[in-house]
Amino acid sequence: MSMAPALMPKILIVDDSSTNQRIYSKLARQLETELDIRTFGNPRKALEWLAENTADLIITDYKMPTMSGAELTAAVRADVRNWDVPIIVITAYSDQQFRVEALEAGATDFLLSPVDHVEFLARAKNLLKLRAQQLLISKRADLLEISLHAKERLLRESREALAQVIDTVPAMINATDRDGRCVFVNAHQAAFFGKAPGELVGKPIEALLGEERAHISRRLDQLVLKTGRAISPRQEEVLAPDGEPRIYLTSKAPLYDSSGEIASVLSTSIDITEQRHAERRLLHIANHDSLTGLPNRLMLRDRLRRELARGRRGDQNFALHFIDLDRFKAVNDAHGHHRGDELLQRVAEALCALVDEGHTVARLGGDEFAILQPDIDGPEDAGRLAQSILDLLNSKEDSPLALNIGASIGVTLAPLDGTDPDELLKNSDQAMYLAKSLGGDTWRFFAADMRPRASQTAHLETELRGALSRREFVLFYQPQIDLRSGKVVGAEALLRWQHPERGLLAPGSFLGLAEETGLILPINEWVLNEACRQGAVWEADGLGDLRIAVNMSPIQFRRQGVETLVKDALRSSGMRPTLLELELTEGILLGHDEHIVKQMHVLRSLGVTLSVDDFGTGYSSLSYLRSFPLHRLKIDRSFVQDLGSDPSALAIVRTIIDLGHILHLQVLAEGVETEPQLQLLRLEGCDEVQGYHFSGPIPADAFVAWVMQHGQAGSEPSHGATENEHARAG
To answer: Looking at the whole model, is its pTM more than 0.70?
Structure first.
């Protein structure tokens, strides 16, 4: 008899590496608020624990000293209590043989090591849900078994009640006898095919599934009948009667008659289409550049790691080309960010058309691209491609679409110039800076004695250290609009550096270095004080109750007492605490650091409001939203940009808005650039918006003029700009 589901799901992690145990445990804790996680380095100890306990999910390494993952899986399945426990086998071997051995032993799923965190969470979450569903059905079956010993009237009533329950389950459930004929079809599955359950009972399974799916189903049924064991859930793609492709998670289990013989096979299919689409969308966002659709730095590093692994198994060599556009800034400044975005998209398309399918073209950020060139015979192959890239980006055609933009290219060869992704990226970056220092429009191979990048970084650090004392920093402000009243309710303070030689610099060009050197602390302190000073001035001038939002760096929370900095800034400026909002990243919240929690509650007691910036792009978790004194969620612009064109983006935005309102939080959408985006957000109940549809970040005096002109309800927003360069402090 199957056991009822536990109140707290149990996850068993078996790996001889303590480091892997910690990593998988930390990932697993993101699945649910309450979990019972047990870790074992010795598989036999894990089996001893299982002899007295049950688990809802088992995660095991394949290669372990005393017992392989496949052997452990087989031992677990040998216990009838564990025939349906989901098991994920993690292996560094991509050879099909190891996957087959694990699956034949009874593994539910497998992952390649090193594990992709997003994929790990998605698969583990689905298997836990399926386990809960299996246990729920099992519990109901147990109740039915008890009722069999009651009177005939109670037996009949129980059967009818069970049929009603199964008909209401949002899953397709059917049972087939040994001849492959339907003995039961629930209402949900019958309705899927436009029939009544009674029309399908007694018919061959082909009448339900069609010839192709029925052939596979019969083979799996025979395996269940032969072994007497359930088949772990498997994903299958199904074409619905209306022609729409759907994705189902299907499991099979034996059903026994009164004599204990297997009489039929129960099949359960759960529709996971929308979940899979959302997971793929989030995975794509995490690994691709939102403007060009190219792989981003994260995915490029993964591709580099795979190529390096291939090289260790053979003698494959590859090249990495680091491409920096020479004249992009001039085009961007002269024609605006919209034209700059279009140029970057055209460069991306041209680079993809230039190389073969096996190459990887990535955008690293700004006007920097990279190309991974696999399977080269020598430096000559890399040199030819580098020259082809230069020729492409220096087209002299007299055409509006000609890419006469120029580039500086750094080329590094692997494994000669490096044996890990970061080293190759750094070396190709240094080679690119050498090409840039020679006047651009050229390419250079990396050489071990190159240090121009380090020299430039040191020079920028020196300039950055004196920028505060020379009063070169300035704050721009971007309006935040209430969608119900149409009025300006706040502004986000955004840092700029008025460099004496290079002009106005966005934070992306210097904040990374500021965080590395610790200069982010005094810079953020200046931003906080200046924003409070400006807010107090605006209030004194009668501009109204304008909320000023300031981004706070995670380093600020961990190294300094933020509550003290805020108190001092409010006291010295005279700004009311209720007009100050601090924007936090999800990274600050995920650790649940008690010191940070204490600071947040102190800030809340002062009247300061707290918001989560770029919500939805990190490991968004209901648990931390409930645990912290937050006021507002800010939807990341990457979701807003795709509203109206991508149903997944609309679903994500709708979910964030609903979640925020359920938790009594305000929701603000960033990056609103078009009227259709604004209308969709208004229809979905979003509270506030900001973006270039209304105004880009502007100086303080220009902000006042803008509010006086546009700040009233019903005023028309400005048009034509995009947020290509929207960056912020902290």
So the answer is: no
